[in-house]
Every structure is written in structure tokens, then in C-alpha cells.
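Notes, p. 3: input format for complexes.
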Amino acid sequence: MITIRPFRAPDAASMSDIYRRSVTELGPRAYGPQQVAVWASLKPSPERLVEVMNDGRHCLVAVNNQDQVMAFGDIECDGHIEYLYASPDIAGTGVVAQLYDALENAAKAKNIAKLYSEASELAKSFLLKRGFSVVERRDFEVNGVPIHNFAVEKRLRKAS
Ligand SMILES: CC(C)(COP(=O)(O)OP(=O)(O)OC[C@H]1O[C@@H](n2cnc3c(N)ncnc32)[C@H](O)[C@@H]1OP(=O)(O)O)[C@@H](O)C(=O)NCCC(=O)NCCS
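Output follows (160 residues plus coenzyme A):
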């Protein structure tokens, strides 16, 4: 059984590990080996995760019966999604969908007008199924390796 709950500092080590595993095990479905390697090199340390997840943003984790983190995601105060990462053990099972729904509900409760992100190919597929649209493809380099993602957004309420 999966429970969605707020982030707590002791989750950070598992989250850093989920980042590494999701990039190295799921990333190759859409990105080449060099791209996966530079993406993995951007892995946030547990200390960095504790810092950013306590900056006022909303961070939720999906945990199993043993309270082990299976996926995590965040929404910053302005609606930006910086992280959405799933353990390969539960990718494709609907756990991330539960997590996302809870994040979107929290954003609506905070009256956030628009969600937006720079989504990987995998996250783009996931978010388009949830009403996001692609604003543009972004091509850039990380340590000399060309890689791309997509600016995506979803309006939650009419601009005032
Ligand atoms: C993005 C992510 C959280 C989505 O969670 P998920 O449970 O995999 O979501 P979905 O099942 O909807 O899968 C999204 C896409 O991943 C791929 N995918 C997921 N499970 C797959 C599987 N078992 N086999 C092959 N491809 C799979 C597919 O391309 C799928 O898109 P599709 O439905 O159009 O085919 C997860 O894929 C992940 O952690 N990816 C790696 C990290 C990442 O890209 N994070 C976002 C950074 S911006």
C-alpha cells in the first residue's frame, strides 16, 4: 500500500538514491549513455535536498508499508515543479499519478495559477497525460554533452 505524505528530513538519503536510480535505470529509455551520465552527475546530495525542500516549497513523498520512499515530487511557491522522480521499482504502476494528484491538489489549495516545469522525455509523457502542454523544446549542454528537455505548463485557474 502506498501513502502520500509530506517530506521529512530523514527521507533525503532515499530521495537522492531514487534520483540516481531513476536517471540511470529509466533515463536510458529516452536518452543516450552520455546524456544519462551527465544527468546523473546532477544528483542532489541529501543535504541539498533537505535545504531546498525546506525553502517554502511543497514536497510530497510516496512511501510503502515500511515508510520507504518510492517517489517524490515538489511544487515551488510560484508553481514550478523542480523534481518528479520515481524508483524504477514502481515506475509505470500509478504511484506517481497518486503523488502528482496530491501535489496538484496542494497547488490548487494554495491558489497557484499555473504549474510549469522543464520535463525530461519521460516526465513530458507523464505530464501531457495530466493536462500539461509543451511550450517549447529546450536543447542545451551539460559538461559539453548535448541534451534536451521540454518547457511544459498547465494552467490551474484563469489568469487574474
Ligand atoms: C517521470 C516519472 C516520475 C514518471 O513516472 P512513471 O510512473 O514512469 O509514469 P508513466 O508510467 O506515466 O511513464 C511515463 C513514461 O515513461 C516511460 N515508461 C514508464 N514505465 C515504463 C515501462 N515499464 N517500460 C517502458 N517505458 C516506460 C514511458 O515512455 C512513459 O510514457 P508513455 O505512457 O507515453 O509510454 C518517471 O518516469 C521517472 O522517474 N523518470 C526518470 C526521472 C525523470 O525523468 N524525472 C523528471 C525530471 S524532469
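Residues 12-26 form the longest helix (15 residues).
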